[in-house]
Specification:
alpha+beta, about 25% strand, eight-stranded mixed β-sheet, about 190 residues, Aminopeptidase, single chain, 5 helices, about 30% helix
Length: about 190
């Protein structure tokens, strides 16, 4: 099925029949299809190895998460974007972008299964995922937090135009995160062309 047709059909279903002024298209890169998650992704999403410290996800939990993601998408509060490898049709990872409750800054999170790390998938998908998030959430400034010792993730953010904004200390300890974290910000003033 054509990726553009799928994306328009699926998004219209999720947000209740109207695309409004958003010109949404699933984005194809050289090796990936980058698009919002949908219910047919539940089993693959459940099988995606979790980040360190996170709980394993059952298919039922994945379905519930997708229902919540679709609800957030309807409100344009959050978008959960999956990365599908064209050659194998496998779900490799995801980007999640959400609107901050207190500001007009978006929070960006991402994860890729360990077996696919170091192959440039996140660098390839990052600009496409960010474009979808910007267009759908109607915000242009994002922040992301990474472990200070996670050089590959820092490199991905820098390639996407993020700039270091300083250390970040969580208000409560985060499971699976050891050591200091760094906060990165991307806005139109520091965007790399």
């Amino acid at each position: 099925m054509c990726c553009t047709f799928w994306a328009r059909h699926e998004l219209v279903r999720i947000i209740g029949g109207r695309l409004g002024s958003v010109n949404f298209e699933a984005i194809e890169t050289a090796r990936l299809i980058v698009r919002p998650i949908c219910m047919s992704d539940a089993e693959a999403f459940a099988q995606l190895p979790s980040p360190p410290g996170a709980l394993a996800v059952s298919v039922e939990h994945a379905r519930n998460s997708i229902v919540l993601a679709e609800d957030a998408l309807r409100r344009r509060d959050c978008i959960l974007i999956v990365l599908i490898e064209k050659a194998s049709n496998r779900l490799l990872g995801f980007f999640a972008a959400s609107r901050s409750k207190d500001t007009e800054i978006g929070d960006l999170h991402y994860h890729i299964a360990e077996e696919f790390r170091g192959r440039g998938y996140m660098s390839e998908a990052g600009p496409a995922a960010l474009k979808l998030a910007e267009e759908f959430l109607a915000i242009s400034e994002f922040e992301a937090v990474v472990n200070a010792d996670n050089a590959p993730s820092i490199a991905v953010l820098m390639r996407m135009g993020f700039m270091l904004a300083g250390e970040w200390v969580p208000p409560v300890p985060i499971i699976g995160r050891g050591g200091p974290c760094l906060r990165f910000v991307r806005n139109p003033d520091n965007e790399r062309k």
